[in-house]
Design goal:
Radius of gyration: 17 Å
Helix content: 40-55%
CATH topology: Spore Coat Polysaccharide Biosynthesis Protein SpsA, Chain A
CATH superfamily: Spore Coat Polysaccharide Biosynthesis Protein SpsA, Chain A
Oligomer: single chain
């Protein structure tokens, strides 16, 4: 079984085409699947889009009455996924803004079956493409990747911030058992780095698959606040460096 976790906040326009692509790809692959959509206090028609999709595909809505942000949405979605999954199942996380191509799921799951514990949809591995992302965002992302590779090297990993990932279910189950609610406790987009750094401590085998990031398909403005994300990420880096010093 493949569980696909989608945090969704005000994605009434992008969620329907994304879900159609997921359904078509999963039917083509023949893999049993379930989509867990965390409706994170949206104020538009996201909830209606989820209900309409549930009529044609296996969808479960996890509802937040108020917006809690990406970190809490991921925590809710992954918590449900790891409770429902068997140890050999696969858990996928994706963005709901239609920038992550569902066609990559098959390659990522194949790599998990070949022996990887975590597979990242990466912007920095051969074959990757980035379409429509502003130049300054690409530069910031590249230097963030370089910083993490220097300070916290993980064999085979270049993209530490990508939210498009496949996890062997028992990895997420082990993380929740070990860390409890503190497994995902960093704010905003920095939680993706923190998740990876925590998994790194447990000697997981991590690989990458080339991501085609389609920012040109995104509707509306990005929900990522660049200045806040930089601050949260630098704060995380400092915290991890201090933890290593005191060990």
């Amino acid at each position: 079984m493949i569980y696909i976790v989608l945090p969704a906040y005000n994605e009434e326009k992008t969620l329907p085409p994304l879900l159609r692509e997921i359904r078509e790809n999963m039917i083509e692959s023949g893999n049993p699947y379930k989509v867990l959509i965390v409706e994170d206090g949206s104020t538009d028609g996201t909830a209606m889009a989820i209900r309409e999709a549930a009529a044609t595909m296996p969808v479960e809505e996890i509802r937040h009455e108020v917006n809690r942000g990406l970190s809490e949405a991921l925590k809710s979605g992954l918590s449900v996924a790891q409770r429902e999954a068997s140890s050999r199942d696969i858990i996928i996380t994706m963005d709901s803004d239609n920038t992550h191509t569902p066609g990559l799921i098959l390659r990522m799951t194949r790599l998990i079956r070949e022996g990887y514990d975590v597979v990242i949809g990466s912007r920095y591995t051969p074959g990757a493409r980035v379409v429509g992302v502003p130049f300054y965002r690409r530069v910031l992302s590249y230097f963030a990747s370089l910083l993490f590779r220097i300070l916290f090297p993980i064999r085979g990993v270049k993209d530490y911030t990508s939210g498009y990932r496949a996890y062997r279910a028992n990895v997420i189950q082990d993380m929740f058992r070990y860390y409890g609610n503190d497994f995902i406790n960093r704010p905003g987009f920095s939680c993706m780095v923190d998740i990876l750094l925590k998994i790194r401590r447990h000697n997981a085998i991590v690989g990458e698959a080339p991501l085609i990031l389609r920012y040109d398909l995104k509707e509306g403005e990005s929900k990522m606040r660049v200045a806040r994300t930089i601050w949260e990420t630098l704060s995380l880096v400092l915290q991890r460096i201090l933890e290593n010093v005191h060990r």
